[in-house]
């Protein structure tokens, strides 16, 4: 059942993105940015955790979870250190994602040639 | 009679000449591909939890890293842009799309050198995501923290 | 001599002496693949980056064009060339190599006919015996300059056009040849408010309509006087718009209108609404059309190369796209 919900919820989140592209004629960059902000917004009310509990990777793989993790990390540190904790913790949970994207992106760029 | 030779309303009147967007097919493709990528994510996460020391919860980080590796390689092999044209938001929204935006920019500017080409341009497309993520997360965090302090 | 408001009619016959065309793999597999002088199976054309590949395309086109008539670069008086890259850098490099006195041109995708018009003017005015004109474009160099990195997975709308990979060169002079350059109509810049870089067909159609209408008015001809009116890169979106615009002005070109962007690729090739780019009109004109004229299969053709004069900055600043179209009349002297 986990797999079914991951597929359905992940798919539906992408459908919302597709509608923003097709109906509202947003550029890909605008769509992705909106999703990150939306993820952080949902997390502000604790809603995104509920979605993750329900859909697993269906909620952690879409880029909305990036916004959620940013806020989550910030809040974790903020609870200990106060306001400065926001700045200390914002990359705490997303560090693995950003680091691997940078590292693999860099290595691939070194090895491959653009295909066009 | 509506005439096309009307510069003021040209933008509106030419709509009839544009190819019709197949909203349903686009959404279906986005749903299937996006869903499939999440399904793969779920499978990787479960595999990490089953075969390594990671718990179901802590397997999130290696899962995302694995998906990013796959996406970077597909970008290097020149496949991800073709998936993207087919799937639309289906491959744009998952974290693999974020990795693709970084790798494609880095790869494209390879010919301008490693420092000024690859490294400088890496965040050309992904930079906006990180900026908006960080700004919105800190603003929402600030509000939440202040509300908590006032109530608490 | 100037006739009407925007048209030059060349007094002594000015001839299109020789042409050379090159293209990439997708164009090779298209319907006109056979008419292109040299094609490459690899988008890199054997070079180390995209910009070098584009230079290779223009260099080979120029070489073929001159070799056809056994002319060396020293015997050419002027070189008029342009492309889509910043500061027309491809043309600058080829001019450095050929060492022919050079004028760099920019008219976006209209540069092909802009170059041919100016070359004819120089020859007609007695300022040159041989003028070489060339244009090039490359899908990957244009994509990365005007849009996104080539490997980026963001989807494109169906109104988008696909920049052709290739180059075209033409030699203009007084020596007799089966093709005469009869007239040139210089277009006005027209902007009807389209600001979408993924919908250049719609943006350029009014400019093409204006130039065609002006041309017919200046020369006193009717659409029926032409065997073909060939537009540069209006694509499947802009072409019907152009026909409708002219039809409303009582000019029916539907029987004779063709678009290079639609001829260069077959419908099942992944080029969205059709081909575009500086090379698009040049490959079709200097390859296919020149063959038809040379053998006398068609008598008179009006080629209207359309250019969207944009750059990425003005698009992001939400400005609309200024567009221009230049027309050239080529006539067959009756076949070889």
Structural commentary:
The complex is a heterotrimer of chains A (116), B (152) and C (336). Chain A has helices at residues 2-22, 28-44, 47-55, 57-60, 64-81, 83-89, 95-111. By secondary structure, chain A is an all-alpha fold. In chain A, α2 (28-44) packs across α5 (64-81) and α5 (64-81) crosses α6 (83-89). The longest helix of chain A is centred in the first third of the chain and has 21 residues, at 2-22. With 152 residues, chain B is an all-alpha fold. Helices cover 74% and strands 0% of the residues of chain B. Helices cover 34% and strands 25% of the residues of chain C. Chain C has helices at 25-28, 50-67, 89-98, 111-124, 139-146, 200-219, 235-248, 260-263, 278-294, 312-316, and strands at residues 2-3, 7-23, 38-39, 78-83, 102-105, 130-137, 162-163, 166-173, 179-185, 228-231, 257-259, 275-276, 300-308, 323-332. In chain C, the strands form 2 sheets. In chain C, strands 1, 2, 3, 4, 5, 6, 8, 9, 10, 11, 13 and 14 form a 12-stranded mixed beta sheet that branches. In chain C, strands 7-12 form a two-stranded parallel ribbon. In chain C, β10 (228-231), α7 and β11 form a beta-alpha-beta unit. The two termini of chain C are 28 Å apart. The mean pLDDT of chain C is 96. Chains in contact: A-B, A-C, B-C. Chains A and B meet through α1, α2, α4, α5 and α6 of A and α2, α3, α5, α6 and α7 of B.
Summarize the structure.
Chain A has 116 residues and is mainly α.
How many whole angstroms does the radius of gyration of chain B measure? 22 Å
Helix content of chain B: over 70%
| Helix percentage of chain C | 25-40%
Broad structural category of chain B: mainly alpha
Assign an overall shape of chain C.
globular
Offer a few descriptive terms.
heterotrimer, A: about 120 residues, mainly alpha, 7 helices, about 80% helix, about 0% strand, globular, C: about 325 residues, alpha/beta, Peroxisomal Thiolase, Chain A, domain 1, twelve-stranded mixed sheet, two-stranded parallel ribbon, 10 helices
